[in-house]
Amino acid sequence: xxxxxxxRPYGMVAPAIIIFSLFFIYPIFYMIYLSMFDWxxxxxxxxxxxxxxFKDLLTEPDFRQVLTNTTIYTVLTVTLTTGIALLLALWLNxxxxxxxxxxxxxxSPHIISLVSISLLWSWLMxxxxxxxxxxxxxxxxxxxxxxxxxxxxxxxxxxxxxWKGLGYNALVFIAGLQSIPADIYEAASLDRSKPWxxxxxxxxxxxxxxxxxxxxxNMIGSFQVFETIAIMTQGxxxxxxxxxxxxxxxxxxxxxxxxxxxxxxxxxxxxxGILTMIYFKLLSNRVHYR
Length: 290
Hints:
mainly alpha, MetI-like, transport, membrane
């Protein structure tokens, strides 16, 4: 084998590696570097402060509130989206015009811009003229301040996230259900297995790779939520909907505290990485690929 034949595979993957390093690896290390400086994004000089930005973050009450908001938002979004999508998939896993139409209808929010969806839901949740308050008013209930009250604002954003992500998750579950061999269902039928037993003992284990994938994707996406908050609440009221990515944006591009924002970005990277490692460690052995 010639030298060129040995180097050819590396040459073929080199463009992808260069692009990945330039736009993913380098920004991560540069963010870690900036987190140790005090810089206003305008001055040509940076002041080295070491770990002071991290100390300020961890002692800041607003940042602890942001971490709490992000955790609640992620847990609710991942749990509700995955659970409801699984139930929908079990119902829609049929070959008929109606079920196909419903699949397309619930998938359509996934392909719509999140900015457009945020504007739409801002109108729907308007306390005076919104459609949601009109509907619950017909049912005899009072008006809700969906986005303008701390007790309902974060739940309202969760509703938007679940509505947008439901179709994609449901279709992925349907694909997983259709990949289960038909003879498994036939064997369960011959054994007179009850529906609940069939679901828990056969369907769920066969869907475990799909569930594993969707939980990871939904968790990472929930930690990175930005557009809905920037358009619908701007982190308010009283910091009740502020999450990590919007917090980083505020301090980086509104207050021009680049080192402080970079430190928050490092913490976000650390949290997502640790949670992903724990998730893989605890559940990867329970995923059945056959």
